[in-house]
Amino acid sequence: MSHYVELSDLTKIYPTPKGGAVIVKNFNLRIKKGEFTTLIGHSGCGKSTVLSMLAGLSEISGGGIILAGRELDGAGPDRGVVFQSPSLLPWMTAFENVMLGVNQVFYTTDKIERREIAEYYLTVVGLGDAMHKRPAELSQGMRQRVGIARAFALKPKMLLLDEPFGMLDTLTRYELQQVLVDLWSKNNITALMVTHDVDEALFLSDRVVCMTDGPAAEVGEIMEVNFPRPRERKAVFEHPDYYKLREQLIEFLEVRAHRKAVAPKIEPPPVEKILPPGKDNFRKPELNHV
Amino acid sequence: MKENVFKKIDWLVLPLIGVAAVLILWQISCATWAKDLPTPHKTWETSKPYIVEPFAKRGEMDQGILRFTWYSLILVAKGYALALIIGTPVGFFLGLSKTFTKIFDPLIQVLRPVSPLAWLPLGLVLFMGAGKNASELGALFTIAVCSMWPTVLNTAVGVRAIPQDYLNVAKVLKLSRTKTLFKVLIPASLPYMFTGFRLSLGIAWLVIVAAEMLTGRPGVGGFLWQEYNSLIYEHIILCIVTIGVVGFILDRLMSVVERRFKTI
Predict the structure, then answer these.
(1) Which of B141, B154, B144, B147 is nearest to B94 (CA)?
(2) Cβ–Cβ contact B166 with A under 8 A
(3) Cα–Cα distance between A36 and B27 in angstroms, integer?
(4) B30, B136: one domain
(5) Which of A246, A262, B156, B242 is in the most buried spot, having the most CB atoms within 10 Å?
(6) Range of the domain at B195
(7) Would you call B187 an interface residue with chain A, using a CB distance cutoff of 8 Å?
(8) Residue A109 falls inside a structural domain
(9) pLDDT digit string, tens, across residues B90-100
């Protein structure tokens, strides 16, 4: 399969009084059509910056992005974005929020059909009874469901998810991950998600791309995740490979993300040396134990 | 139990205590140091015909108090409408464009504190050629210029305060400029705009008195000034109370509207 999305030498430099601050440097990534890719890395490593350059919300300082054979130039509804905060317009109902996008993309379709599209996606995400409520009347989880429905209803070439479940409690997050994975497998839209949740990344993705720490973040390591689809949380958690992959990801985030791929491995200092004097007595038995 | 009953009616009792206190102070003042000030009783007696027949018209400058109020309200409505029509777009431009702000903000800051008493003569000069309408146009100009600023500044603040999230939505969906304006920018800044509208209305009502005093137009302010010149001081107090009550009612009405338009 050919590459559907190509990020080539993508670079982001923010101008500061002391000269340019390099956030992302020479970021290269190729994504196949219909693939679900996740960018994982520490907070502030620049993963969201990559995503917002893809969304066209942040200017590209260097390199370029090709989506479906065309170089990207600015934002557009061919990419459905699910933001970290639901970003719904509070003066509109859930339905109107979705319709705002649908009207924009399907302006040639007649009105009844457009309404049906919006209603369909809102029902699929579980808001069949609440679609005419305003965001203020919805829970945080329901708002994010609207956000997901809005992105899918555009029938975009690509789905961009920026820590979409970061603001939710664990149970709601699980629910919404299932909603997302179900909806995604039905539509098979090429997706790129940014997260720092290892379990979320493993559950949803075909590939997990680990980013090194900023400044000048780049691709550190890429992991294939081959759990069978359609995925069910329980089945994935109980898969024999699950904990091995999870360990690898955590190990990367804990140790290797902090260094450039080419940098030599630095041994952690011996324990005795970082102990403050006087506390030796306290720690000694423990050391003997080891 | 007794306390409860009191709690229930204290919204009425407590303000009445305030009114009574002022009346007593007023009465004492009349008896002691302000001999020319009419007493509360005399004020009521002299004002009665203007209150019990509020819409009577006995002459150009001798009409029921509500009739005068009506004239004033019409003039205010016109000037206020003008202020909103000019002020809102100006506020939008200030909020949207940094360059526009840099060009006009110093001017606005300088013109804003200028009193209506200073603007009115300029207004009269501007419309001198209009003949019979000169005083009305001058008054409208003054009301519009003076009451515009809260609308301008609050709209600008409202536009600047629009969360980036909403703008991102507009950007990602590639909404047209008009759609962004009507679907995102205006609804998002509406609460701020209405705060500006309410403050502007308060100022417009303040200005009307000054404008009518100087132009001698029939209205509450004009009536007040005329009665001062005719030495009927009771009517000054009648006018003051009327202006206050009307201003209060306008403010209440506007805050009801403001709350209705709270979009968030």
Answers:
(1) B154
(2) yes
(3) 84
(4) no
(5) B156
(6) 65-260
(7) yes
(8) no
(9) 999 999 999 99
Residues of B in contact with A89 (CB under 8 A): 166, 169, 183-184, 187-188
A207 domain-assigned? yes
pLDDT at A91 over 60: yes
Measured at the CA of B196, the angle between CA B193 and CA B201, to 5 degrees, comes to 125
Could you tell me how far CA B36 lies from the centroid of its own chain? 30
Mean pLDDT across the stretch B142-157?
93
Select from A87, A88, A155 the residue whose CB has the most chain B CBs within 10 Å, as the one to mutate to test that interface: A87
CATH number of the domain enclosing A220: 3.40.50
> Measured between CA atoms, how close is A134 to chain B, in angstroms?
10
Q: Which two tokens stand for residue A108?
A: 């040639």
Q: What is the pLDDT of residue A262?
A: 45
Give the total number of structural domains in chain B.
2
Whether residue A21 is contained in a domain is answered as: no
Q: What is the DSSP string of A229-289?
A: SS--HHHHHTSTTHHHHHHHHHHHHHTGGGS-TTSPPPPPPPHHHHSPTT-HHHHHHHHHH
CB contact under 8 A, A77 and B165: no
User: What is the domain extent for residue A247?
Assistant: 34-55+70-78+156-289
Whether B168 contacts chain A with CB within 8 A: yes
* A283 domain residue, yes or no: yes
pLDDT at B264: 53
**H-state helical runs in chain A:** 47-55, 94-105, 111-124, 140-153, 170-187, 198-204, 233-237, 242-254, 271-274, 280-289
Residue B156 lies in a domain: yes
pLDDT per residue as tens digits for the range B95-141: 999 999 999 999 999 998 888 888 888 888 888 887 778 888 888 99
Angle at A55 between CA A50 and CA A58, to 5 degrees: 65
What CATH number does the domain containing B181 carry? 1.10.3720.10
Same domain, B70 and B32: no
Instruction: Please name the residue that has the structure tokens 């019409």.
Output: B74
Residue B45 maps to a domain:
no
B36 near A CB under 8 A: no
Structural contact between residues A140 and A88, judged by C-beta atoms closer than 8 angstroms: no
Q: Which residues of A touch B (CB under 8 A)?
A: 55-57, 75-77, 79, 81, 83, 85, 87, 89-91, 100-101, 104, 136, 154
Alpha helices in chain B (DSSP H): 2-31, 40-52, 65-96, 98-111, 116-126, 134-160, 164-172, 177-179, 186-215, 220-229, 233-260
Same domain, B119 and B211: yes
Q: Is residue B191 a part of any domain in this protein?
A: yes
Residue A30 burial (CB count, 10 A)? 14
Tell whether B203 is covered by a domain: yes
